[in-house]
Amino acid sequence: RLINCTDILREAAHGLKGMANNMGLSALARVAGELEKRGRDNNTDSLDLLIQEAQKEFDKARKAFQSILN
Question: Of 19, 48, 53, 58, which has the fewest Cβ atoms less than 10 A away?
Fold first, then answer.
């Protein structure tokens, strides 16, 4: 079975959503859930905006964790 890009998106977003939920990162989990849904539905509309939003939420979480460690 060939794996297409939306299958990869769905699987990666599912993993990210689970990790974000486990760490209490609800905003990142929400965006990852939307990415997962888009992958499942083979809907690639505005993916760049959602990926940018996920990156923004990831960066906010990273900075928060870094401030705790420093």
Answer: 48
Q: For the chain, what percentages of helix, strand and coil (3-state, to nearest 5) are there? A: 80, 0, 20
pTM above 0.85, yes or no: yes
Are residues 13 and 39 in contact, defined by beta-carbon separation less than 8 angstroms?
A: yes
**Within a 13 Å sphere around the CA of 49, how many CA atoms are in the beta-carbon half?**
5
Q: What are phi and psi of 57, to 5 degrees?
A: -65, -40
Q: At what angle do helices 47-69 and 5-22 cross, to 10 degrees?
A: 30
How far apart are the C-alpha atoms of 41 and 61, rounded to whole Å?
28
